[in-house]
Specification:
heterotrimer, A mainly alpha, B mainly alpha, C mainly alpha, A: 2 strands, 71% helix, flat, C: 2 strands, 2% strand
């Protein structure tokens, strides 16, 4: 295994998952600190773009959880669904509900907001990532 | 501070408008990008500028107006989506017409 | 449809007629049976209405809340006037559906006619039962649109299209005036409810804006009811199929304007402005239409012009003060529907059976269309206002009204003339066509119409005869309608029995003149034909000239604006926005103040320099890759600015977007660089350049000035304070920006991510096909 291949392996095995984890962390902290679905999603796009530039667009596409368009659609759908529990509770659409789950040590706040922000994250990842990967794939095809 | 930013936005707008009136696709694309930056800054500045006072709720802290920030944040992402779409349109036109002029056939 | 050899002796001819009728019959019957469901709806509505009128006393009131915040209610109100309209709308609607089944038998497009007719009927019902004026307006415009579709039914013919367009343009434009009048009237009267407006009428009679409001309403009502100078669309609308004409022009569409005027008469009849306008325009319309009638040779167009004359008379009667006038409006309206609809049916039967509506080619049709002849004769008796017909009752009421109101001699003479022409038209329709010398064109084999086309006219004339013999039968109906027009009217005083003969004098004069016009029809026709150059001065030729002008203007504008050059489009757009910005500045500039100068923090100065420098460099460089990089400077400059001025979320977003954009675009640019040598700058760009520079500078100056002025204004923190205060307690979040995005304005965000996702879906096929080629 040459040094280039080794670096590539490290990048794929370590750096890419780390970037994605970071993007998820940005997503989850967004409610109380700078961050959120848009920024997290863009970070995930950056991670995918990095894979596409280092290897190929096809490789980056393989590393997405879903193909870009379904990923974006899933995001929009999640955001849409997160508004429904509120409707069932008799509130206007997209009224978010909060459940504080008591834990032995602390308490865990659960909310439909997290579902909504996850939807934003996936939609941005799928749509913006889809743009970048398609452009890069077109350029590769030209070569 | 407002006057300074207003002048910068003015320069940015003028350059953006001038670029979109070019005859080739890539400058037009970047002109639109510059214009969207200008509009974002304009929106942001209309919420007034404060140094170093993020809209995070902390004990005793002041904060800037959060509403323009929320609007601009989504506008940045949407603007990027639009740029991506235009880029693909330009590439398609390039593949079909063989050159990157905005008005193929006008002068040829 | 008829058998050959129909030109034998009388017996054979009769035999042929019968066989012709019989050969029609199966087709007509199946069509009639299949059209039954279409007649069912109006028939059942008619039944319900009659039952309701017998068992539930008027007025009926229904109201549903629609948009309470705008004082908009779905309020219906049915009094005597509305009930009379409803009876005719549903009753004649039923007959038209039956007639149409015969008339359009075998025509594959008949379902479209029936559907449109039913929708039209529902719109008419809505219009005459609305109490809320805006609701009335909505139904009013619906009838305009539906009549456009009905008149233009035969859209393969250019004349149909033009007639439909004319009807829509005139009644639609009139509708806009009506809307303006309604709004102004509601402003004056403080309510959109007809009831409340009528109740408030004495209080607002002195308001200076009232004449303006009434003038606007007049334009709307006159255009709908074909009053001068909007009268010409109605005869042209005869391009419609005959059942449609019979429905629209006898009982429904064109009476809507009269309905509105009669409705408001209760409020404004005492105003001289109201009286003089209506009497003047109505009389003028009636006379113009009566003259035009004599110029026609097509039976349907003759009937159309005589309808316009009747509408003018109705307008005049609405304008006349007094109880007698109110009763006359109700009676004439009812009588006209009962004789005009059968006459239109007769015209349709002639068209169907003899293949023409030209009165020169239609004579002696009695032998070929005997039942149609009966209907025509009885309808004509009513139209001429001969004794023992219902038309006589109406004419009686009219004469009494004129005596009571003491009209000017001019108006009196005009009505005499119009009445005489009515008599002449009745004579043409009945005597000339059916009882004249039998010189029919034998090659057309005239034959009687099938049963579905005979029943409706016969039924209507039978009713007219019944009401003519026993006028007291309809007294309650006419009395209730007259009471709605003139509230102080006592319905019990209506007595149409034949004891009021002093008016016979006027009737005899009308009859004599009518007979003279009938015999002089051809000579009058030739005389008026010589004066046709005068048409150039009329409103119709004005309409056509203006229409041509609109077409030319549209063509010119399209050539100027849609030239196909993108820089030109963008220049127009940017120039227009600049002008609007400058106008806004001019308006606002006087009261705004420039912000006071403040110390400049160094980081912000750096960011501003980065942004401005990057932008300037972007204009100057020619290499695309360098252009991309310097535009990146602008992006990073904005991101830094966000970071320093308390917007970490924006800074993060902008950094991420900028990085991805520059890297991906740089990679893509490599493809463009492999292109054959870049083309020289297009000549068009050089031509645009000075103008582009000017527009760019003006635009940016206006924008900067606007921002500075905005910064000088006091800041309204109400909204921001709300978000900041509610963020933690209501939405459990400390990052207010994120809370706004995902919670307070989540619906916006949902739309935005959907847009981004859709942009991808729209863009992907572009690239896929570009890659293939």
């Amino acid at each position: 295994m040459g040094p280039r291949a080794l670096l590539a392996e490290i990048f794929l095995r370590v750096l890419h998952p780390a970037l994605l984890l970071a993007s998820l962390w940005i997503l989850l902290r967004g409610h109380n600190a700078p961050g959120g679905g848009f920024i997290g999603g863009l970070l995930a796009v950056a991670a995918s773009a990095a894979v596409a530039l280092t290897f190929t667009a096809a490789e980056a596409r393989r590393r997405l959880p879903l193909p870009p368009t379904p990923l974006a659609a899933l995001g929009v759908l999640l955001a849409l669904l997160s508004g429904l529990p509120g409707v069932l509770g008799g509130h206007p659409f997209l009224t978010h509900l909060w459940f504080i789950v008591p834990l032995p040590v602390s308490e865990l706040p659960l909310s439909t907001v997290i579902l909504f922000d996850l939807g934003v994250y996936l939609a941005v990842w799928g749509a913006v990532g889809g743009f970048c990967l398609s452009l890069l794939a077109a350029v590769e095809a030209e070569r | 501070m407002e006057a300074l930013l207003a002048s910068a936005i003015g320069v940015l707008t003028a350059c953006g408008v001038f670029l979109i009136l070019r005859a080739r696709t890539f400058p037009v694309l970047l002109g639109l990008t510059l214009l969207s930056y200008a509009v974002n800054l304009f929106l942001f500045a209309s919420g007034r500028l404060h140094l170093d006072a993020p809209p995070l709720i902390r004990a005793g802290a002041t904060y800037t107006d959060p509403l323009p920030q929320a609007l601009v944040l989504t506008a940045i992402v949407i603007g990027f989506g639009m740029t991506g779409y235009l880029a693909m349109l330009a590439l398609r036109a390039l593949a079909e017409a063989g050159d990157d002029r905005v008005d193929p056939g006008k002068d040829s | 449809m008829s058998l050959p050899g129909a030109n034998g002796g009388r017996a054979t001819a009769r035999h042929e007629e019968m066989s012709a009728a019989r050969s029609d019959a199966p087709l007509a019957w199946t069509a009639g049976a299949s059209a039954l469901p279409w007649a069912l709806l109006p028939a059942s509505l008619f039944g319900l209405l009659v039952g309701g009128l017998i068992s539930v006393p008027l007025p009926w009131r229904v109201s549903w809340r629609w948009i309470p915040a705008l004082d908009l209610h779905f309020a219906l109100y049915v009094d005597g006037l509305a009930a009379q309209f409803l009876l005719l709308i549903t009753g004649i609607g039923t007959l038209v559906a039956v007639y149409g089944a015969g008339y359009l038998a075998g025509d594959r497009r008949r379902w479209r006619v029936f559907t449109l007719l039913l929708l039209f009927m529902l719109a008419m019902i809505g219009a005459v039962s609305s109490d809320h004026l805006l609701l009335l307006f909505v139904f009013w415009e619906l009838t305009s649109v539906l009549s456009f579709l009905l008149v233009g039914f035969d859209h393969a013919r250019e004349s149909s299209r033009k007639a439909a367009q004319q009807a829509l343009l005139i009644t639609g434009t009139g509708g806009l005036f009506l809307l303006a009048g309604i709004i102004l009237l509601a402003e004056i009267g403080g309510s959109y409810s007809l009831r409340q407006l009528i109740a408030a009428a004495p209080a607002i009679a002195a308001d200076a804006r009232l004449p303006a409001a009434l003038t606007l309403l007049f334009i709307g009502a006159f255009s709908k009811s074909a009053q001068f100078p909007f009268h010409f669309w109605l005869p042209n609308a005869m391009a419609a199929p005959t059942p449609v004409s019979a429905y629209l022009h006898s009982a429904t569409l064109v009476k809507l304007g009269i309905y509105l005027l009669a409705r408001l008469d209760a409020a404004f009849s005492d105003l001289p402005f109201w009286e003089y306008s209506l009497v003047g325009v109505g009389t003028l319309t009636a006379v113009v239409a009566a003259v035009q009638t004599v110029r026609e040779r097509d039976l349907k167009r003759i009937l159309a012009w005589s309808t316009v004359a009747t509408l003018g008379t109705l307008t005049m009667l609405v304008g006349l003060p007094g109880h007698g006038a109110a009763l006359a409006v109700a009676a004439l309206f009812f009588a006209h529907a009962l004789y005009k609809a059968p006459l239109f049916f007769v015209a349709g039967n002639l068209d169907h059976g003899a293949g023409t509506r030209d009165i020169d080619r239609l004579t002696g049709m009695r032998r070929h269309l005997p039942w149609t002849a009966v209907a025509a004769l009885l309808a004509a008796l009513s139209m001429a206002g001969l004794p023992l017909s219902f038309g006589f009752v109406a004419k009686d009421a009219m004469t009494l009204a004129k005596v009571e109101a003491g009209v000017f001699a001019l108006v009196s003479h005009a009505t005499l003339f119009v009445g005489s022409v009515s008599v002449a038209v009745a004579a043409v329709a009945a005597i000339h066509i059916f009882w004249g010398r039998d010189a029919a064109d034998r090659t057309t084999h005239p034959h009687e119409a099938p049963l579905p086309m005979l029943l409706p006219p016969l039924l209507l004339v039978a009713l007219a005869v019944l009401f003519g013999l026993r006028p007291t039968l309809v007294d309650p109906l006419l009395g209730a309608a007259a009471q709605a027009i003139a509230p102080s009217f006592d319905p019990l005083q209506v007595d149409s029995s034949y004891d009021a003969w002093p008016v016979a004098e006027a009737s005899i004069a009308t009859l004599v003149f009518g007979v003279l016009i009938y015999f002089g029809w051809d000579r009058l026709h030739a005389l008026l034909d010589r004066a046709r150059d005068l048409d150039e001065l009329g409103p119709e030729s004005w309409y056509w000239r203006k229409l041509k002008f609109v077409h030319r203007l549209a063509a010119w504008l399209t050539r100027r604006l849609q030239h196909g050059a993108l820089p030109g489009y963008l220049l127009t757009l940017a120039g227009a926005v600049t002008l609007m910005l400058l106008a806004a500045l001019l308006v606002a500039g006087a009261e705004a103040a420039w912000p006071s100068p403040a110390p400049l923090p160094l980081p912000v100065v750096g960011c501003a320099l980065l942004i401005a420098g990057g932008a300037l460099a972007a204009v100057l460089v020619r290499d695309h890759l360098v252009l991309l990089l310097v535009s990146g400077l602008v992006g990073y400059g904005s991101a830094l600015l966000f970071l320093f001025t308390g917007a970490p979320d924006l800074a993060l977003t902008q950094f991420a977007v900028e990085t991805v954009f520059v890297v991906v675009a740089a990679t893509t640019l490599r493809r463009l660089r492999q292109m054959p040598a870049p083309l020289p700058v297009a000549a068009s760009e050089a031509r645009w350049r000075p103008l582009a520079l000017l527009v760019a500078l003006a635009f940016s100056l206006a924008l900067s000035a606007l921002l500075l002025l905005a910064a000088g204004l006091p800041f309204d923190t109400q909204l921001s304070d709300f978000f900041a205060a509610e963020s933690l307690p209501a939405a459990h979040g400390r990052n207010v920006v994120n809370v706004i995005i995902v919670d307070f304005r989540a619906l916006d965000t949902l739309g935005e991510i959907a847009v981004v996702a859709l942009a991808l879906v729209a863009a992907l096929p572009l690239l896929r096909r570009a890659g293939r080629s």
